[in-house]
Design goal:
15 helices, mainly alpha, elongated
């Protein structure tokens, strides 16, 4: 029961918003415009709101096109063949086939097929339903877009800034905890960190989704479109951050192996991980500062300095630990630093990191 109540609490706001948007779409189409049986207005609203934020503008376009295509095919086939099983087969074939050939998304294909199916089976077209269905879908999509933007209309970048800070903070905390586990030679703690590291991909996906949602919001706000480049920078950064997360996961795996061998980690390794965690925090501050419109260079420069310091410290271990899991960890620190600095837009990253590790 507690789990069910928790799920209901988390879904209450989206469910209420979807129900309200569908109802408003029905009222506009039925009462204000006077469309007969405006089924596609609330259904389009629900379909659009069911899509992830950041994809709803495209989704609305696809729904309108799908409804128009499906209704047009149904209209022509029913007028030529009448209603019945043969008409149903021909309508679906002529609707789904060209959509797939044109490379339409599965949502668009299904929406077009359902639109045609409804008109053949439930409400045979009478020559005046094409504009009704098309406009109904347009109304539902427009209402859904307005409803989805209400929460972020005043501060469109606030959710993205919060997601960026949280993602980088979680990653930095993980590196700090990993360093602590190595200092204490605590296998249980290292395995717990490794388990957290395997779930960091979800945080990066949430950040990418927040960037898509912010971009969609800015496109619908003409005055804020000049900030779209900042959101595009975040989208590019998430690709590098995805590499960072993968490298940290491998680093945590090697660290777990080191603790399992009951081998005490050198002090330099803990210092290197602390420096790398500092670089991650500065990179997050750089990204968030850029989104607020301030100068991110100071934080980016600090991230650069901390990441190179982490590599320099770790490089000293290559001589004292030539054939141990420590060597693997040093390699992952280097690779993580490269991806992290690329994410904050630093130049000549490979050259400077290799110089820091002594490979010049």
């Amino acid at each position: 029961m507690r789990s069910a109540v928790g799920r209901l609490r988390r879904a209450a706001h989206p469910a209420l918003g979807a129900a309200a948007a569908a109802t408003v779409a029905w009222i506009i189409a039925a009462d204000l415009i006077g469309h007969p049986d405006p089924l596609f207005a609330p259904s389009a609203a629900l379909i659009v709101l069911g899509e992830l934020r950041g994809r709803r503008l495209r989704q609305t376009t696809e729904i309108v096109l799908g409804v128009a295509a499906g209704v047009l095919v149904a209209e022509l086939v029913v007028q030529a063949l009448g209603t019945g099983a043969m008409s149903l087969f021909v309508v679906l074939l002529l609707t789904i086939g060209p959509m797939i050939a044109a490379g339409a998304s599965s949502t668009l294909v299904v929406q077009a097929a359902i639109s045609a199916l409804y008109l053949v089976v439930v409400a045979a077209p009478q020559g005046n339903l094409i504009p009704y269905r098309f406009v109904d879908a347009l109304i539902g999509g427009a209402v859904a877009l307005v409803a989805s933007q209400l929460a972020s209309a005043r501060k469109p970048l606030a959710p993205l800034i919060a997601a960026a800070r949280q993602t980088y903070a979680d990653l930095a905390d993980l590196l700090d905890d990993l360093g602590h586990a190595l200092r204490e030679c605590d296998e249980t703690a290292a395995e717990a960190v490794l388990d957290r590291a395997t779930r960091l991909d979800e945080a990066v996906e949430r950040l990418h989704g927040a960037a898509l949602a912010a971009g969609e919001t800015l496109r619908l706000h003409i005055r804020s479109r000049r900030r779209l480049q900042q959101v595009r920078n975040v989208e590019a950064t998430t690709h590098q951050l995805d590499h960072v997360v993968g490298n940290v996961s491998v680093l945590a795996r090697h660290a777990t192996t080191l603790t399992r061998l009951r081998s005490c980690a050198p002090d330099e390794l803990g210092r290197a991980l602390r420096a790398l965690a500092g670089a991650v925090r500065s990179a997050g501050d750089s990204l968030a500062t850029d989104l607020t419109g301030e100068d991110p260079d100071r934080h980016a420069g600090q991230a650069d300095a901390d990441a190179l310091e982490a590599v320099r410290i770790a490089a000293k271990l290559l001589e004292s630990e030539p054939a141990s899991p420590v060597t693997m960890i040093v390699g992952q620190i280097r690779t993580t630093a490269v991806c992290l600095l690329r994410g904050v837009g630093q130049q000549d990253v490979l050259t400077r990191v290799d110089e820091a590790i002594g490979w010049s």
